[in-house]
Amino acid sequence: MHPSAVSKRSIETRLVPGDNGSVLVLSMRSLAKLVASCILYEFEDVILELTGGDCVEVGNDNSLQFSRRAYKLLRLASLSPRLARTLAPPPSAIELQRDYELFFPVFNHPHELYALAAVPNWRKRCRVAACFIDEVWAHLLPGYLLELLQQFDHVFIGTLHCVEEVGRIVGRPCSYLPLAANVLRFSPWPDPPVRVIEVCNIGRRSAVTHQALLQLARARKMFYFYDTVSSGTFNDKQRTFHVENHREHRFLLAQLLQRSRYYIANRARINEPQYTGNREEIPGRYYEGAAAGAVLLGEAPATPEFVRQFDWPDAVIHVPFDSPEIEDILTQLHRDPERLEQISRRNVHFAAHRHDWVHRLQTVLATLGLPPTPAMQQREKHLKLVADFAMQDGRAAS
């Protein structure tokens, strides 16, 4: 068979066993391959590593979407979720063969919630159930899918503005869970490489700022790293692409940021205010950039929650989204190398203390009344060493 034919063949839903742990993760990693999804699969990997849990990888998207469309029609016609579930053709699915303490599916957005049908007996096999949905916008809530959340003990959401609304619709406890990063992967300490990349500007970007940075790069004044690929199936407000291996991509991103002096970081979907309804949310790049010790430049969310999470000096240096004067800003920053060094050290220090994925897993388990694992406690000790390395000369103390 030709290799391209193999790559296009549907992969069925499968159970990937761990180390006999008591946690079951449900992942969209086999179906949702956009670059932005990789950060969530990193979260799943850390959960599986620290709990020894199993992972259900949802497969066969054609089967899943056919089942979802049938369920939607049956649900609207019958007004009965139970009848719709009974009559809808099943997607590619597995039956769990053992019990778990915790079921924890991770979704990129609420339109993936029907993937729960890939594990039809999950509620019977799992004592406690919670889920995490990363990007949820209040004006894009699919009611027929949100009602599936009524089976959970707790719902965690990665966007703050809609937590109360989702909780009202679902009738279950609902709370905000920020993104984070694998700080042990992204941190440059204890042996930081040379920051040969002056500015890293990936993902959504201002054409004005980008052109000004390109001009500097063409004049050989700096090494400017930026995206050159963009999927034609999406609007021109974002730059995105598919990733074959999420672990390799996250490793590459960590290497880039460890070697970047400045990282452009703006609030979520900054160039789509109509889409967000002018709501300001915190994207993953703040956690990644801080963990890597890059100096963050951009327009941060003007919210109390952002200030609470990033409350140390110079966590983000304000630079307007459209910055034709970016050369002047960089020149001014270059005049104080000691400040830049302190910013880098502080970012790593606080990321290691607050914004590793283990801190989010702690929140989940504590909320559900579950104890941390020994592996989680060991990771915390490792993170403390990283934080101490970053501050070891004392110059970065606030």
C-alpha termini separation: 61 Å
Order of helices and strands: HEEHEHHEHEHEHEHEHEHEHHEHEHHHH
Helix content: 40-55%
Q: Characterize the main sheet.
A: 7 strands, mixed
Mean pLDDT: 93
> What is the number of E strands?
12
Major β-sheet strand ordering:
1-3-2-4-5-6-7
Low-confidence stretches: 1-9, 394-398
Calculate Rg over CA atoms.
22 Å
Shape: globular
Strand portion: 5-15%
Total helices: the number is: 17
The oligomeric state of the chains shown is single chain
**Helical/strand content category:** alpha/beta
Brief account:
With 398 residues, this protein is α/β, with parallel strands linked by helices. The chain contains 17 helices and 12 strands.
Helix-strand blueprint:
Layout: H1 3-8, E1 14-16, E2 23-27, H2 38-51, E3 54-57, H3 61-78, H4 81-87, E4 100-107, H5 122-125, E5 126-133, H6 143-146, E6 154-157, H7 163-170, E7 174-176, H8 183-186, E8 197-201, H9 207-218, E9 224-226, H10 246-258, E10 260-264, H11 273-276, H12 285-291, E11 295-298, H13 304-309, E12 317-318, H14 326-334, H15 337-354, H16 357-367, H17 374-390
Parallel strand pairs: 2-3, 2-4, 4-5, 5-6, 6-7, 8-9, 8-10, 10-11, 11-12
Antiparallel strand pairs: 1-3
Features:
398 residues; alpha/beta; 7-stranded mixed β-sheet; 5-stranded parallel β-sheet; 17 helices; 12 strands; 14% strand; globular; disordered N terminus; disordered C terminus
Task: Please describe what this structure looks like.
The chain is of the alpha/beta class. Helices cover about 40% and strands about 15% of the residues. It is built from 17 helices and twelve strands. It has helices spanning about 5-10, 40-50, 60-80, 80-85, 120-125, 145, 165-170, 185, 205-220, 245-260, 275, 285-290, 305-310, 325-335, 335-355, 355-365, 375-390; strands at about 15, 25, 55, 100-105, 125-135, 155, 175, 195-200, 225, 260-265, 295-300, 315-320. α12 crosses α15 (about 335-355). The protein is globular, with a radius of gyration of 22 Å.
